[in-house]
UniProtKB/TrEMBL annotation:
A GO biological-process term: methylation
Keywords: Methyltransferase, Transferase
GO molecular-function terms, A-Z: S-adenosylmethionine-dependent methyltransferase activity
Keyword Endoplasmic reticulum on entry: no
Pfam families: Methyltransf_11
UniProt cross-references to SUPFAM superfamilies, sorted A to Z: S-adenosyl-L-methionine-dependent methyltransferases
Domain annotation Methyltransferase type: ranges: 52-139
Organism the protein comes from: Actinomadura harenae
Protein name: Methyltransferase domain-containing protein
Organism ancestry: Bacteria, Bacillati, Actinomycetota, Actinomycetes, Streptosporangiales
InterPro entries referenced in this protein's UniProt entry, alphabetically: 23S_rRNA_MeTrnsfrase_RlmA (IPR052939), Methyltransf_11 (IPR013216), SAM-dependent_MTases_sf (IPR029063)
Length: 256
């Protein structure tokens, strides 16, 4: 294995735009949920007239869908990702709107038959309910509770209060409070492995909420300790948490 400084320098210099993790091939692994969200989303998109993908990132997941509805929009708040999504999805007729990840969504009431989102940073249930047409569906894969907390707590120490966040039952209750009916709600914990310290640095630069405020210089001592542990004991193991949630807005839409 290459030295600590070389691995860290390499991972610090590579672009982290978009939501493509192929740079980690051969360096980190993560098991996938049994429901295969991208495939489920693609099937739903092929069967509706209008849809919105919220917090689309670089558009990589939405781009996997073979068929998109006639009216297809996406939102993204980070300018580099919005630019990537526009370049990737624009040729397929998707309107990508650069907007903050906070309400209101820049769309009319009842504008969409389907709203999707993969790993949204925040979920504004009232807004989702507002832009769904009666009978419309919200289908999403959320980050679940205590996801990758082995990494978080390695750098930040114990986080007992944060462990209770993103509870799926609480999310279901919030959806119901916004007037939606829960159709499906399930969570899985999935094994992750980091095989070198460069993979950890890249991951933390890209998934910024795992260790808020992460920088190599600020966390160099713990990075070096983790590098020594990986060299001695093998890959660092963590566990992601993923929640599949499907919620329906009561009523009968115009496409019924």
């Amino acid at each position: 294995m290459r030295g600590f400084e070389e691995l860290v320098a390499e991972a610090s210099g590579v672009s982290v735009d978009g939501w493509d993790f192929s740079w980690l091939d051969g360096r980190a692994t993560e098991a996938r949920p049994s429901w295969e969200y991208a495939g489920v989303m693609a099937a739903r998109l092929a069967d509706v007239r209008s849809a919105l993908d919220v917090q689309t990132g670089g558009g990589e997941v939405l781009a996997l869908a073979g068929r998109l509805p006639v009216t297809m929009a996406a939102t993204e708040s980070w300018p580099p990702n919005a630019a990537r999504a526009t370049a990737l999805l624009g040729p397929r007729g998707v309107v990508v709107v650069a907007t903050p990840d906070e309400p209101p969504l820049p769309f009319a009431d009842g504008a969409f038959e389907l709203v999707t989102s993969r790993h949204p940073a925040t979920v504004w249930w009232d807004e989702i309910a507002r832009v769904l047409e009666p009978g419309g569906t919200y289908l999403a894969q959320h980050v679940g509770p205590a996801s990758v907390f082995e990494v978080t707590e390695w750098f930040l120490g114990p986080q007992p209060e944060a462990r209770s966040l993103r509870d799926p039952e609480a999310e279901g209750a919030a959806a119901r409070a916004a007037g939606l009916e829960i159709v499906d709600l399930r969570t899985e914990r999935l094994r992750m492995e980091f095989s070198d310290i460069g993979a950890v640095v890249y991951f933390l630069r890209k998934v910024i909420w795992i260790v808020p405020g992460f920088t190599v210089e600020r966390h160099r001592d713990r990075l070096r300790e983790l590098d020594e542990r990986i060299r001695r004991d093998g890959p660092f193991v963590a566990h992601s948490a993923r929640t599949l949630i499907e919620a329906r807005k009561p009523g009968t839409g115009p496409g019924a």
